[in-house]
Amino acid sequence: MDLKNPSCDTTRAPVSQQGGVCTLPDLEAPKVTVNIDGIDVEVVSGTTILEAANQIGVKIPTLCQHPDLAIAGVCRMCVVEVEGMRTLQASCAYPITGPMTIKTQSRRVRQARRHILDLLLRKHYGECYACVRNGVCELQSLAEEYGVDFFRFGHPTEPLYEVDTSSYSVHRDMNKCVLCRRCVRTCVDLQEVGVYEAVGRSNQTRIETFLEKPLADVVCINCGQCINRCPTGALRANDPSDEIWAAIDDPTKHVVMQTAPSPRAGIGECFGLEPGHALTFEMNTALRRCGFDKVFDTNFSADLTIIEEGTELIIRLKKALVDGDADVKLPQFTSCSPGWVKFIEHFYPEYLEHLSTAKSPQQMFGALIKTYYAQLTGIDPKDIVTVALMPCSAKKFECNRPEMVDSGFKDIDYGLTTRELGAMIKEAGIWLPDMPKSDFDDPFGTATGSGVIFGATGGVMEAALRTVIELVAGQKVENFYDHADIIPVRGFDGVKYAEITVPEVGPVPDLLKDLVPSWDFLKGATLKVGVAHGTANAKRVMEDIKAGGIFSQCHFIEFMACPGGCIGGGGQPIPTSPAIRAARAKAIYSEDAAYEVRKSHENPAVLKIYNEFLQDGPCSHLSHNLLHTHYTPRGKFIS
Amino acid sequence: MLVTPHMAMREELEALADTFGRDRSALIPMLQAIQRKNGYVSDLAMQEAADILGIHPVEVHGVVSFYGFLGTEANGRFVIRMCQTVSCDMAGKDAVARQLENDLGIEFGETTKDGKFTLEWANCLGMCDQGPALLVNDKFYTKVTADQVADILDECRKAFGATALQAEKEWLV
After folding, report:
1. Who has the most CB within 10 Å: A23, A33, A401, B138?
2. Catalytic: A243?
3. Which fold has domain B5-66?
4. At CA A172, angle to CA A180 and CA B57, rounded to 5?
């Protein structure tokens, strides 16, 4: 096994996207002693005042600063007094290079911060009771912290702008915008999609899309990373919980919930738990108490995705290596992340044939619930309402794609985010952490560890490799990797590359007999795989492929639109940071380790469905009808 | 071959990128050239410029909206900018402004129907000692009085037509 780190251009990437490349301050740099509020602290030259203050536990309020984003220094909440300087300085953007004396809570500083806050509130339409961020709003908590008891400069009593609800995923309410530009830095630097920018000048400045068009009409991939980083309620997801409550209350409807792996690692945060507490089985009970008729595990269809996508890869490899078909598109790209799918549709439409035709687990499950499950239980599919609990705002767009109706009905009726479910559970008067545990419902049962790790970057690849290695080599993955943990594809490096040599081949399993007569063509072959998370990194990999670099030689590449994979998705609890995402990923991997069955092809429910329903096997005619899809080249030019 | 406006714009911007470079620092000179030639920066031009420089169209939009001398809507052939800051105001800019509005039949912020003149306010043109100051395209007029307005407009009008070859070069770069 050989792990190479391709040198990618990370100069413009924000800190969290640079992997381990260049985030640490230069330890060789000289140390400087500064005095903050009478406390001496020694820091490396180049440390900001804010970081130095954090080291000694002095709290400085911040608003536009975010651990994932480049420094902006625009909100001025963090101003401090530096002795010898005429004006107050923004501590988040002031690097310490020499000895200095800093005051963080003098009268002048307190007054300035209060006035800045008053000025922010002057333009912020604060309808706090009716706001989705009530209680988790950074502006609200700053106002509380600074004892705002009246509006010194006034306060808007009427909204000035119409709320942009054009998008299936992200709603924008510019009445609540405080111009911190976090969404701009998220979209332009972190994700490199470029939906928002500050438009205009001076007090006319506002955050706008290209040509001030509604979100649905611009090149937006719906990843929702801007929502996760917005300090106020200006950006939020399109909330379907009212419709879902209505369906639950309707006795003629059979409401089915499927829960993805990442929300269970994050939902505890909605109830004040530390990040990294998985509440999988408590959530099942809570969902039933809320009134959902059945609770299924999306991991079942994640396992199914692995089988379908893996088979597709094998077919592509066989066509390329055995049949010598020059038209076969390799590397194959994963298609589980709807943000990534829309990204490639917009920015690299010429590579759409590389995208696996397999649907995402959410959509596969929807198609199966309204066909297989409906047949099995005798419920009319028109009375089934499918809800998908996802860590993702782009899933809301995906379930509304016009092609996602293969069951004859809308395959998934509603995409629900972790945050929205947290609110629904609270509304039902349930305290989630106290719930007793209960398992998922039949006939899909409990899935495998491979399905669970879909939530973290590298997880889809690891799940696919576990299955492919075992099916091809005819031996246990544990013979190659301890505990079947394929470490080279794990971790938060922006771009990962790994090579796996297939030393010997085993017999072809029954499931694939019709497709490949023997594995001989893979004997001694080296499987090259890549992993990228965050569309900025995806873009780097795509440019590398375009230039004929190392990734163009790959066979299979996993792409996730959100930094960290689904655990950092746009529907996850707010706030987010590299540390929070790492904790959630840890929860997911420990859940995987606890499963008895950890490989997708050993999932009994998956084997059963190929025996009973999809009898012609993976990538057959019926499976293509229900479990595969096609894509739309969209391009990036709009008029 | 049929050349669509889209292709023509692309070609023009490619040529500009060859001159000014292909990174984001070339954006402003490129936009200035487009603005000079067309009187405005079109939606298409913003997207093509972004594509060539490897940035996002919305970033280009942000830049165009920030600078007063770049615009997304068609201006007149002659953009008359009147300084509205204190020194020019005290030197009597109001009389000149009223005269301009009267002679052209438009208000500040508007363009004449024939597409020849646009009137705009400008903040300090840096001619505080010689106010009131006017900037007509790239040409300065200082210590302007209401009487001179008719002559200035005439000079512009004469820049069109067969008799104005030299003037045209000077005005319509």
Report:
1. A401
2. no
3. Arc Repressor Mutant, subunit A (1.10.10)
4. 70
- pLDDT tens readout for residues B17-38: 999 999 889 999 999 999 888 8
**DSSP 3-state assignment of A108?**
helix
* Residue B65 contacts A where some CB pair is shorter than 8 Å: yes
Chain B hits for A193, Cβ within 8 Å: 56
- A22 at the B interface (CB within 8 A)? no
Chain A contact present for B47, CB below 8 A: yes
Question: How many CB atoms are located within 10 Å of the residue A6 CB?
Answer: 14
Pick from A574-583, A614-623, B154-163: least confident: B154-163
- HSE toward the beta carbon, residue A490, CA cutoff 13 A: 12
Which of B7, B42, B58, B72 is the best mutation test for A, with the most CBs of A within 10 A?
B58
State the Cα–Cα distance between residues B58 and B158, nearest whole angstrom. 39
Architecture of domain A30-238: Roll (3.10)
CATH architecture of the domain B78-171 equals 3-Layer(aba) Sandwich (3.40)
Residues 211-250 of A with CB under 8 A from B: 211, 218-219
Catalytically annotated residue among A8, A131, A183, A336 = A336
- Dihedral sign, CA of A190, A339, A312, A474? positive
* Token reading at A546: 């375009």
Amino acid at A81: E
* Alpha-carbon distance A295 to nearest alpha carbon in chain B (angstroms): 42
Q: Do B56 and A188 count as a contact with CB atoms less than 8 A apart?
A: yes
Q: What does the block give as tokens for A269?
A: 């945060």
Which of B51, B55, B58 lies nearest to residue A196, judging by beta carbons?
B58
Q: What pLDDT digit, counting tens, does each position of A97-149 carry?
A: 889 999 999 999 999 999 999 999 999 998 899 999 998 999 999 999 888 99
How far from the centroid of its chain's Cα atoms is residue A395's Cα? Answer: 10
DSSP code, position A137: -
Instruction: Give the SS3 label for residue A539.
Output: helix
CA angle B135, B137, B140 (to 5 degrees): 35
CB atoms closer than 10 angstroms to residue A456: 31
Cα(A384)–Cα(A157) distance, integer angstroms:
43
Under DSSP, is residue A460 helix (H, G, I), strand (E, B) or coil? helix
Q: Which residues are bridge partners to A82 per DSSP?
A: A102
Domain with CATH 3.40.30.10 in chain B: 78-171
